[in-house]
């Protein structure tokens, strides 16, 4: 509490009492005078008394103060509003001892020392004396709201009297009554309409209760005589004072520092509900304010304690008071509980500010509020520094208004204006108005003052230059209707509402009314948003709306409380559209959406409790800044903005984290914080989060954001659907499309019809197949679409089976216009089909025949066929050129002539078969066979040839060509009957009667024929039976073949080795090798090797068989060595191509098996292929390549013993032709050796001798070009295949024999040997080009250049 002022003492005790209701004056009574002080402590009047002060009391409205003294019977009356003192003589001889004003009238009751009563009516100045009301001094009393008075007297009686002094009831008590109060005791029945319970303190120790009207069931007292006396513990001490509060509760203060709360309910009387001790030693003063606050004073230590009666155990304020200031005694409150005055024993009076009038205002983000009786504080909560500016005002304001840089305060009809700066303020002006001001609004240069149902709009500072017509204006104008009840002032507009429902916008810039709207009932509250273009209105019904002056639209505020006191719009840019409505102790949050798929909307965000006594002033970023009764600003976070409880920490599990993120995402979306939502969705990382963003974005017409969210979710269909809507500018059209995407088609139609393209609603209904709605829309919007819609509707009805409805709509869809010909044809087709379906056969047939489409005829024919009207169906099928179906229905009617006429157009085997059977019955076998052949019924053809025509050869031919099992069986039976068993066995096998064929072959000695015919079709059992037969018959070759098929490799090898090797076309050794290869048995392998080496019969076999064996056994190294031996023998014999092919085959096999190729094989293959290439290049007259290749071969001439002279001769000739004269001389000289000279061909002998004679001294040698090594890039002669630098064997070109280079690399697609791309690609353009290595055909498309040939450099060096 803050001390407001102090009144110095008068060396004696005083009595103090605040003015009732207004609390503007404090009456301080000393022994001979009464002083009146204003709320700020300045003395306004002093009343001198002729005698010692006796008693005083304020009238119920605080207008008159009555003062008594002991010198005479004159009553002093001081009228506060006129500050005038009156004297009224009671005209009695008795001393005046007590007085009290009525609660409901202007009557003053005055008691005397002898028990008389005077009732004075101040309004009429009439006095009614009642002599002898009591026998002794009247000491206390109280009025009730029925204008009855209760009196207490020292004669130990309490009386209830009327306003005229007539006694109504009277009771006696034990002791002298004191401190009489009136209230209502707590009871179960309905509360009384006026106070009926009288309470009084008896003898300082007990509290007496008297119910003047009621009775209790347990009491035998008659009505009006219920009396209860409450006694308390002695430890509490004497009763200092007490007070009624709440629903029949009493709070009693005791001298030993205790306070006790008791109930007056019949079942609770006598029970203490609570007890507290605010003062440890003594309690000297006790008073209760009209705001249910208790103030008490006590000593040791001396302090003032404030307690709220809603929680009497908990002290609100404890204010220590220095004992040097004097002993505290008396206390008095203002009715509003703001000011508490305390007097001391020496007459000093201290006045404290216990609570302030909750007075505050806000404009944009500036808040102004009352912090003391004459002090207003302003600050901006949105600024981090929060600098406060304190303004001293000349009065205690009743109202307050604030703008961005102007503030106004005032009381009654006067207003003071202040200019606000960052760190200072100054008073601009003050102004009086023609009536009491209800509220004042300031913004910019103007102030709007509401008084007497009018508004005066004027300049705040009269010194500001402005047009005279724009200095001030009164609203409403002469033509205005209704009283103005509320107003708001923004930077651009004055907005006010009337009790007739009018909402008016006055534009300050143009100084004229720009918008007027008439609401259906009176307007109570208005609150504009920060821009002033939207405002909330609350009407007399208690309903709330958001109003837009742009189009006079109203959006209802949902869940609005009945006691709405005000509305605050959020001033934060982040939360535009958020506002809160104020109710009793709570606010409700809302989000206003200017645009959504449903148009403008208002969403309810939830409610937030504030606690009692808080007045919301500002809403910023979801934070509500409130003013409490102590003049403090407190902020609350709205529940809609409060972060979900974050339980994230070290022990956080995934479920809790995900739940936190989900709740945060939902909150951010409710507040339209999409940036924050996007970040949360990324953290959440599931489809549901993205879907929520997308759905909210669609709701708010944010198409691009929705598309991005659906893309993150992976909903490609929605992404594509929204793509076409990005460019739509018409909001209604866009909303309609989005509603359609959400499946809200009726709403989508309504919105689309309000758009610039209402036909979009028709297109939507057509797309959705909502034909009834589409037809209704088409009649209003686009009649030319009715035929097409009717046709589409008919198609759907036809599909659903409603043929009558379909026929009707098809009929409606025909227009007969040339431009609609395509539509008419479709409708006529539908009419034809559905006419047949509903039984109008003739009409359907005629429509089908008239229709140009064969498909329509076919459809109608099919319908007729289903109705078993085969004749008509066949005719329509023929017209539709569906000859097979026509023939089918004619066949059902057995009209074979018509069928026969159509057979040339029929491919169905079934129809041909039916026709063939009919002709067979008629004996037309040739025609029947032709039909059976078309039907593919070869069995019937064979049967007719055998049984009816006797043409066996034809039957055999048909059976062999058709491979008909049943037909073959018929032929077999025929041959069996004629004793031709070999043929019978053959056809039994063809008919898959294998067992029967075997038995016949066995019996008739036709097993070889059986074995030959069955071939690969034999089963394992069949092969075993045949093998055993030939084993028994000593047919070793055949036995071995069939044992091999059975997988009995040992017996197969045994028989193959026993079979004669000279059998024509029967290479038994090759089969033996195959057997050993499949067996993979070392014993059989050694047995075969011994046979091939001649160990069995002393005759070694050809080495090729050994090579084949090693290949079959996959012993590639041994096979390679054998291949080299074989190739060497072929090479020595002059069979160079055979030797080359042998090495090539082995080379490829080793390469494919990733086995290293021996160098001997690599070099042998290279030499042989080089020699073979010579003839190719000689034919092409490319003597340079031929000479280089022959030089390579001649260098190893010893490996070609069969053709030494021929090779050397060719070398000399080609070198001579190529200009390699030195090489020609070298090899010519070699030919002149004695062992070769005689063998030189006579054709070339003279030339060679001449070369030798000329010698080589003057010969010029053509230098061999150098090309880089593909391994180390060292320059090498192009035909050198070994690199002296890196020691690698260099790959060579299969086309030229030159070594390969990396930049010109390709390979054969068949044998995969490398070649120079430039050479091979040129060669493949020639006709008949083939690979010179593997002899397979090549074409230009086979040859592609290899950019990175590194993996192909060492194919011959791969290792197993």
UniProtKB/TrEMBL annotation:
Residue ranges annotated for the WDR19 WD40 repeat domain, each copy included: 367-641
- Any Pfam family the entry gives: Beta-prop_WDR19_2nd
**Do the record's keywords include Repeat?**
yes
- Which superkingdom? Eukaryota
Q: For this chain's UniProt record, which GO biological process terms are given? A: cilium assembly; intracellular protein localization; intraciliary retrograde transport
Q: What is its main location?
A: other
The reply on keyword Repeat is: yes
Q: What is the lineage of its organism?
A: Eukaryota, Metazoa, Porifera, Hexactinellida, Hexasterophora
Q: Where in the cell is it found?
A: Cell projection, Cilium
What residues does the WDR19 first beta-propeller domain cover? 14-347
One GO CC term, this protein? intraciliary transport particle A
Which ranges carry the IF140/IFT172/WDR19 TPR domain? 859-1054
Q: Which UniProt keywords apply?
A: Cell projection, Cilium, Cilium biogenesis/degradation, Repeat, TPR repeat, WD repeat
- Under which name does UniProt file this protein? WD repeat-containing protein 19-like
